[in-house]
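User: Show me an example of a complex going from sequences to structure tokens.

Assistant: Sure. Here are the input components:
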Amino acid sequence: MVLEKGDFVKINYTGRIKDGEVFDTTIEEVAKEHGIYDPRVRFKAQAIVIGAGHVIPGLDEALVGMEVGEKRVIEVPPEKGFGLRDPSKVKVVPLREFKKQGLKPYPGMRIEAEGKVGRVQSVSGGRVLVDFNSELAGKTLVYEVNVEEKINKLEEKIRLLLERHFPYADPNEHEIRCEDGRAIITLSDAVKLRSDAFIAKHLVAKEIFEYLDGINEVEFQEIFKKPEEKKEEKVEEKKQEKKKAKPKRRRRKKSS
Amino acid sequence: MVLEKGDFVKINYTGRIKDGEVFDTTIEEVAKEHGIYDPRVRFKAQAIVIGAGHVIPGLDEALVGMEVGEKRVIEVPPEKGFGLRDPSKVKVVPLREFKKQGLKPYPGMRIEAEGKVGRVQSVSGGRVLVDFNSELAGKTLVYEVNVEEKINKLEEKIRLLLERHFPYADPNEHEIRCEDGRAIITLSDAVKLRSDAFIAKHLVAKEIFEYLDGINEVEFQEIFKKPEEKKEEKVEEKKQEKKKAKPKRRRRKKSS
């Protein structure tokens, strides 16, 4: 069965500039081989919904019609990749601004200004041209993409969305069940410490309603347990029953 | 029955400096009468747990032994109020710092520096003494306090804690039920938009475990509903059944 828009899949891919270097990959060995390995990044197949804009348009479109297990090499023109180059993003910076900060600009030098990354294009006279376009803007890209898995079970589709929007939490620590048009999601403890969780909840609910027919309500649950009892669960499981009933008398019960 | 530590109550109070002005009150008319009315403040009886530090220590202690409906006038020494004055919080500021900003300091003038509010104590030579102590530090206070209500029902005690920690939400919009040692709280929609809600949840759970015997687990629920259906519920209640089954065909069904 070929893949369609709205399918939930896990894909591995490696992107390179046509006739140039590898700039992105989901595969650890490839990252190491091409000098773009970052120990903070989790290398694993990326979970996406086809057609949801979870990857660049060219890659998203190419997935439609592929099959699970299939590997393809696709060419992505700039307008379906990181966009065309915008000449207005090339700025003239006076050479003295660099000198003030003890910097000597040279073509190819990377700088940061106002939170944006730019590259020095040329230095002539007192003028330095800095290009603030993405390095991938205007480039034709080549992706090698492999569809690893298609997710079919409703609960696992929801888990995939949780994985995308709560990237810091282990997706297997969420509990998910669906019944009567409702999705009930007990979130992992990791979520309870995050001030940005409220945004992720809105986005997960939005994508569930958008991509999963038949779900009309999403309930997120966060559970807090009395700290004393948590410890006891691990240490003395057998005594648990008694203690739950009368937690206040624990000390006395111990001696009996 | 006299009140005890751990009781959940609603109180009205008015605090004044001994032989001085009213600085705080829960009663709108009193605030207006004494020129401290602020339209952004909700004037209503304050919901607190006795002994939990929800009010200053002197007031907290005085509530123990009072009865519901009773009104008392109590005197609170500084060490049970807003603390003693700290001489190290009186700073010397050069007069030229004021002049730089076009300010002419005089005793009693209020200024703000580094986020703290201070009052000019004296101006002599080029030196200005600014007192950054709370205006209530070192003062003996007189509170008139009235216990309006004691909360006895478990669910309503939890509602009181929700009222304290989610002050922006209408406490009656939360749904609360307790069963088998668990408190299940469906939070008001207002909470879903707040990045600080995660802290409030931790605090509510902590206080439930601390002040409500028999609850070992707190579950917070946040419910999201599919937006389309929400609209329909209000406008066309009768067609609801059909549309729930096949929401995608709504346009065509309309003409039939």
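The lines above are the inputs; the final block is the predicted structure for all two components together. Chain A has eight helices and twelve strands.
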